[in-house]
Task: structure prediction
Amino acid sequence: MTQATQHSSRPGAGSSEPLLSVRDLRVTFQRQGEEEFHAVDGVSFDVRPGQTVGLVGESGCGKSVTSLAIMGLLPGRGNRVSGSAIFDGEDLLTLSPSAMRDRRGSEIAMIFQDPLSSLNPVISIGRQVTEVMERHQGLSRKQATPKAADLLERVGIPDPKARLLNYPHQLSGGMRQRALIAMALACNPRLLIADEPTTALDVTIQAQILALLKELVVDTGTALVMITHDLGVVAGLCDEVNVLYGGKVVERGGRHGLFRDPRHPYTVGLLNSIPRLDAARGDKLSPVPGSVADNLPWTAACAFAPRCSNAIDPCTAETPQWEGDQVVGFRCFNPMGGTR
Amino acid sequence: MTQTSDAPDVLVEVTDLEVYFPIKSGIIFDRTVGHVRAVDGVDLSIRRGETYGLVGESGCGKSTLGKAILNLEPPTAGSVVFDGTDIASLKGEDLRHARKRFQMVFQDPMSSLDPRQTVESLLLEGLRAHGLDTDTDATRARLRELMSDVGLPVAALSKYPHEFSGGQRQRIGIARALSVGPDLIVADEPVSALDVSIQAQVINLLQDLQDKLGLTYLVVAHDLAVVRHISDRIGVMYLGALVEESGGAELYDVPLHPYTRALMSAVPVPDPQVEDTREQILLTGDLPSPANPPSGCRFHTRCPWKQETLCDTERPQLRVVEVSGASDSHRVACHFAEKIASGEIQRHEVEATITTPGFGGPDAGPTAPPEAYIGV
Ligand SMILES: Nc1ncnc2c1ncn2[C@@H]1O[C@H](COP(=O)(O)OP(=O)(O)OP(=O)(O)O)[C@@H](O)[C@H]1O
Ligand SMILES: Nc1ncnc2c1ncn2[C@@H]1O[C@H](COP(=O)(O)OP(=O)(O)OP(=O)(O)O)[C@@H](O)[C@H]1O
Ligand code: SF4
Ligand code: SF4
Ligand SMILES: [Mg+2]
Ligand SMILES: [Mg+2]
Result:
């Protein structure tokens, strides 16, 4: 396959051993009086140092639950997690809560869609950033303060010294997201997981934040897992892309390969559904028909079959297995294209 | 005035429209301390049968303008003329009659649909309000027709809103708007809450209905790709005013306003090759508050082409410019549009400024400080 070398377009990407190796991750929710619900249904992927890996898919496909499970942040009750998430030789899923807390914020950091809910409203931005450094790096507040100002400057917050004294509500959404990125970077994490970090922002502010993330990844060598529903964001940012549907990775590929020659009918359907700024008006969109409510259970079918224009007999009788490896592949009986 | 104002095919004519919201003092709520200039001098006309797309970032006043056009928000100044009649002059029965001719579709259909009513009773409510439920058989046929128009099974009539997915609920919202047979539909972010595959279904539905029923649309959205896809003409808004207006294709080919160029360059395109090669114009800093808009050109605090003269002192008006590729229906509000297009004026760095959101700011965040701070 030609794709194996295609995705390593950035320095440090793709060459070394994985930093994070997720294998057969499953998260099952037991809702009151209902059948078990498989939110994440056997997800595997690798993230190498310096690499940006995208998890993309529509609402409810399991992107957030995947990241929360890896970070040990799922609500304690009502769910079952299995599989493994090997980070630096250790399985994060079996770490004690206190050991996981130590990793979080120092070696692995996370940014969420809504910065307001991740920032404490009654503590100044400066205090929140220095606290992370005090906790994980053993710095005193005095030592940490100038570093915090440097960090804010680094993430593009104007007049950083004055901003240290601001409270979250005094900053705009874009500035808050920058502050949150500064906090996430405070301890030079090796892995950053960003869950829809720009979805709540205006598009010109989104462009600023994406440019910042891109720059930081190159400068610091931090690996980035980018969770988004926007294939445009993926196209601009990710070295490797995992397309999720109904809790499973249905296709994976390098950035250029996946967009040039998508194999899974769902990936193709998504691409055909997006109105493009550079397309002529009048071109009709060809949306994927139906909705996720039509999904079949993966246990004896392809979940996507009721919405798939390529479906053939086995699609409603068997589970399609993964064809490929940790770099490229898809899960489909009757794939599209086929030049890669 | 627009050059089309006297043409017969204009359905909606908006002139010098202003909608200001008073800002009340945070603790004593009866003192007005200023105004949010949500819509601050807009001129536009919507032609019969076309789709006019209004695009701009959060807080620029798109929704307020849409509501003012539907007479749901009283204008502070200016006028909205619908099919020859100034809507502000309408009262009582005349107003009710006119309302039937313009309907609205909202972003979040759930919040606009009463959860305790079945789809049938939701639709009947609209028909009755306008005296259209006269004959039982005709009404039944009408309901079935509406369901088939928006692509829902007839069985959906007896269900409740929560039994539907987001995309289906949007179809119900569209059916309700269509039920009274309007000429104009104002759709405010009709697809922004939907997943891409569902979004595309609803976009196609809106286009099909327009072809079938000859509807006129005003589509208000923050997503330029969506707006470009469905609009004949596009108006780009920034801080309460139009900065550029033109046909959709022309706006993409020959964007004249610096803000339009920045906005366009910020929209991600699902194609790595395009993403790697295109020019990005990154704006610095925050959107200023519409309660305290910058002097002169409202974009001057962030404009990468800002000049020493005029930009911060004089407010540019929408005008037609002589630029190759720009037709005479293409209007732009920039003092230096010609020189920017010709390359005579080059892009430069901009010092970022930060906006502290307060009351009525452009930000969706809290409008008042958390209680803990009051008095600190
Ligand atoms: N605590 C929970 N209890 C029960 N079900 C849950 C819980 N959290 C998530 N789910 C379900 O798991 C599925 C996957 O959710 P997840 O939040 O991962 O989706 P997502 O891909 O992040 O979607 P979005 O784009 O909307 O954020 C959804 O069907 C969701 O309803
Ligand atoms: N009823 C109101 N009272 C006070 N201020 C208001 C009111 N409605 C809107 N505003 C303010 O007017 C400005 C324009 O609001 P509007 O909702 O029209 O923006 P928009 O372009 O639709 O933004 P969005 O994309 O976030 O929907 C904003 O600053 C908003 O806070
Ligand atoms: S396995 Fe069958 S139903 Fe599923 S995506 Fe492939 S062709 Fe379509
Ligand atoms: S008038 Fe001046 S500040 Fe405004 S857009 Fe044109 S160049 Fe920029
Ligand atoms: Mg999510
Ligand atoms: Mg709005």
